[in-house]
Amino acid sequence: MNISVLFLIIYTCICFAGTFIGLYGVFQKAGVKGWLALIPFYNIYIWLKVLERPWWWLLFFLIPYFFFFMLMLMTWKTIRMFNKTRYISLIPGTFFSFAYMLYLGFSSKEKFYKREELPAMELGFWKSKLLTTKRKNIKSENADAKERSVKTKTREWTDAILYAVVAAYIIRTFWAEFYTIPTSSMEGTLMIGDYLTVSKIAYGPKIPQTPIAIPFVHHTIPFTKYTKSYWDKLQLPYLRLSGLHDVERNDAVVFNYPDGDTVALERQSESYYSVVRRIKQAFQSPNQWASQAYFSDGNVHYYKELFQKYGMDYFQGKEYDVVNKEYHVIARPVDKRENYVKRCVGVSGDTLRMENAVLYVNGKEAFVPKKMQLQYLVVFNGSDIPEKKRMELDINEEDRHQIAMNQSIYHLSKEQMEKIAAMPNVIGIIPQIDTVGYYEDGIFPQDERYRWNKDNFGPIVIPQKGQTVLLNDSTIHLYKRIIKNYEYNDLEIKDGKIFINGQEANSYTFKQNYYWMMGDNRHNSADSRYWGFVPEDHVVGKVSFAWLSLDKFKNWGEGKIRWNRMFRGVK
User: Fold this and answer.
1) Binning pLDDT at 50, 70 and 90, where does residue 162 land?
2) Is the pLDDT reported for residue 355 higher than 60?
């Protein structure tokens, strides 16, 4: 069930109206003029006085987006003032305050207590006095008050954990989130073992589109293989709150993987669409592919196994039949797709092209990250570079491949390349750059009319909200995923004609902005060169800094903690 933006706005207005109208009655029961609940901002100050809380709590409302937590906390405290101490009242009452506050404020059955008047606490979802023994002859009112205020350690810890979970969830949703770098696609700039702080405020936090989910878990329940951690039958519309600025060129950006809308679970480290294309190629040329291997569910398989199982003949659409029968194929909502981090090299409206691994934006050579890496063939006069020297140069061992006794493939920054070239046992270092005209079939848009490769492609214009483009049998391949997958239109190509939502179309107007993302490790990065544009609604946040950096290839006594990388911004 998809909810519209209009419904969400109306629902939010109802929530605020119900809560503060209910507060009108609460104020009256507390001996305060009810109409004060209807004065914006001042009503919060009066509310704190009614709850007998310090005035400086107001300062928390000034922290961006933290007011959500404060409203929930004060609602919780208000329900408690009506002697509702069981979680079966507190939790639903807090989340549905627009209804429960109305009930508390205007029901003649409910009585407001001052803090010192509150009876003994009750624990859990069912009524259970925390006082295990009760003295019979209590004469002092002070003793009464003291006994009524007793809380068990269990209840104190339970309340504290609930507050902490809600506060952490709000911080994670609206302020910042922590990520780790598992691959070398941004190597040099961001390294394997970096623990990142990603700002949600930079571009504005997104309202969770899949609201019913296990907190702090992305898409799969821990310790299970494929069990979803969310319920995707209820989907909220894309809505982003105000941020500090828009996505800018050269920002290091975390975003939801665009090709991750569909996933073959046994091969979820690969793009589903890439898996489909490879299986199609395999069945079209079985003799060439029979002995080629692939990984599925952590095991090595060969394409000949698929030929034996499904036959060697090919018919149109067979690749989808095979994938759907061979694997568990699921769809994931936008906010539950894998998180990727790349550098934004182009924003909406920019024109990009790449020539011999040099990127140009709007006709000018683009910014070159200081530690950007390319692939080189290094030829030695004797043995390879010693391991100790490789560690000193911060070379990623997973990106190094020995292909002959005196030859190895390295991914190197300019600085690393110059240092290696100066070594006495190195007789040659050759950049591995694809030539113009060589067609790499995995490169976007995966159509032979665009004979591009990872080092030579474009020019290509990045779509901008409100921009209109002409559609024909050539340009449709650039924009069909935008039209169908990202902006949710029905798209059909029939008899050479293009139909959008049942109507013949020769143009299309984009509904949102798009970006072009690339890894700084240019020859070992799955990025926009392979799956195209990144929609604005997929953007999660901006990388701020690495709060911890651990070198995967070093032991603790060898400088495993990279102190020089910690708490530094990304350049």
Assistant:
1) confident
2) yes
Strand order in the sheet with 497-500: 491-494, 497-500, 503-504
Give yes or no for a contact between 294 and 301, defined as CB atoms under 8 angstroms apart: yes
Tell me: pLDDT of 151 over 70. no
What is the per-residue pLDDT for 67? 84
Looking at residue 484, the DSSP 8-state letter turns out to be I
Coil, strand or helix at 447 = coil
pTM over 0.90: no
Q: In DSSP terms, which residues pair with 401 in a beta bridge?
A: 409
Residue 411 lies in a domain: no
Q: Give the integer Cα–Cα distance in Å for 306 and 291.
A: 11
Query: How far apart are the C-alpha atoms of 361 and 314, rounded to whole Å?
Result: 42
Tens-place pLDDT, residues 281-338: 999 999 999 999 999 998 999 999 999 999 989 999 999 999 999 999 999 999 999 9
Claim to verify: residue 188 and residue 302 sit in the same structural domain? yes
User: What 3 state SS string does 260-278 have?
Assistant: HHEEEHHHCCCCHHHHHHH
Note the residue count of the chain. Answer: 571
120 and 218: one domain? no
State which of 152, 173, 194 marks the end of a domain.
173
- Asked if 343 contacts 251 with a C-beta cutoff of 8 angstroms, the reply is yes
**Helix residue ranges per DSSP H, 30-140:** 42-50, 67-80, 87-95, 97-106
The DSSP call for residue 129 is B
The alpha carbon dihedral of 20, 21, 22, 25 has a sign of positive
Note whether residue 312 is domain-resident: yes
Q: What is the pLDDT of residue 555?
A: 86
Mean pLDDT score of the chain:
89
Half-sphere exposure of 132 (CA within 13 A, CB side): 1
3-state helix, strand, coil in the chain (%, to 5): 35, 25, 45
Cα 215 to Cα 217: distance, rounded to the nearest angstrom: 6
173, 202, 222 - which closes a domain: 173
**pLDDT of 129:** 41
Long-range contacts of 304-309 (CB under 8 A, 24+ apart): 306/279, 306/282, 307/282, 307/283
User: What DSSP element (H or E) covers 498?
Assistant: strand 497-500
Which residues lie closer than 8 Å to 495 by C-beta, 6 or more apart? none
For residue 539, give the nearest of 202, 312, 193 by alpha carbon: 202
Give residue 325's pLDDT. 95
Domain count, the chain: 2
Closest CA to 460 of 185, 259, 368, 469: 469
pLDDT at 515 over 60: yes
**Containing domain of residue 110, as a range?**
5-173
Claim to verify: residue 191 and residue 325 sit in the same structural domain: yes
